[in-house]
Amino acid sequence: MKTLLQNAQLIGKNELRNITIEDGVIQSIQSVKLPIKQEENVVTINLEGKVILPAFADIHMHLDKAFTYPSIQNKSGTLSEAIRRFQDYQPSINSEVLELNMGKGIYSAIRHGTTALRTHLDGESSEYIKHVVEAYHAVKSKFSDYIHIEAVIMCPFNMTLEMEKDIRWALNNGIEHIGGAPHLSEHPQKNLERIFDIAISENADIDLHVDESDDPQVNTLPDICKLTDEANYNGRVIAGHCTSLSAMDKEQAHEILQGVKESKVSIVTLPGANMYLQGRNDQGIIRRGLTRVKEMIELDIPVTIGSDNIQDPFHPYGKADLLQMALLGSYGAQLTSEMHMNKLIDMISIIPGRLLKRKHGLTPGCLADFVILEVRDPRLILAEQTPAREIWRNGRKICKVTEVVEFDPLLSAKMISI
Ligand SMILES: [Zn+2]
């Protein structure tokens, strides 16, 4: 079946566009000024100038932790307390609870416009790994018609041989990628080398939490680039956070960024969790905690934005809404020009889509996965943060969120007379 979306507003286009879709793929996008080929059996929908975006791709989430706040609190607001409290909580969680929380996170992602996501899953203990892998497969299968889901198993910081067996078990039981947070290990280099060794032998891509610290001495990113080159893993490694880069002097940071570019390591910035967790010891002006996003864009390093933690001890806010994260990214990294605002949309759609090997985009041949917003000027996408959205997957509407505002009639009358 063919579908024609008429009068769609695309970012950067003066004239409205007509978009044709067939078999879940975009067939054509052309100016409304060009004649439409008359065909039978075409469903036509008039978007009346609404903005259409490629569907969002959330490349860094933690669905197994989602919605554990306020049951698990974080009094100091630090990363170390969040890790400790979640570890203390883990023995009380079973696969049913995990499936429920992960499902909530997935619904929330879909209703805000995400049709592809990657979640990190904790791999601290044998028992937890069994539960989390079971829950992951349950939700992945349940939602497969609506969203693409993949997972990263996180290696413990101080990994014993027994723990390594559990990580390998997860990779042999449907978990696609390997991760961890080597900068938190007592022996970061050793932890990193183990992660690369396991990745190579299991043929898994690597997606790490990297240098999530305000301390410029915390600096594993150059080692990651070196190991990436040695393993020929260029294009197969993602580094999330990298916040200590912002605490270093410019020359040192730029030398590291050159290495990142040459090694083809991609970067994910996580503005919500970074602004919540970083700078906790700062007095007076508190640092924003994001990595050097603007410089990465200038260097053409693939950099994306993810939700990270949603309502858990690592970040008590968030709702899997990447437009909200793009707004935080705009504030946090001062990406405020029109070019940067457009880039922020790419950073939550096309760029992470590419890293997930999904064709998110508004060009023929791309997936007909869209977000249609109740906004008519693309320059107002971030400002409006409209909840009113339609989410399309494979050429089919899978969710519609509307906004209803009811003013008292007398108040409404005043507005009309302004
Ligand atoms: Zn994370």
Automatic annotation (TrEMBL):
CDD domains: Bact_CD (cd01293)
Gene3D superfamilies for the chain: Metal-dependent hydrolases (3.20.20.140), Urease, subunit C, domain 1 (2.30.40.10)
SUPFAM superfamilies, per database record: Composite domain of metallo-dependent hydrolases (SSF51338), Metallo-dependent hydrolases (SSF51556)
Domain Amidohydrolase, residue spans: 184-396
Pfam families cross-referenced by the UniProt entry: Amidohydro_3
Domain of life according to the entry: Bacteria
Protein name: Amidohydrolase family protein
Species assigned in the record: Bacillus salipaludis
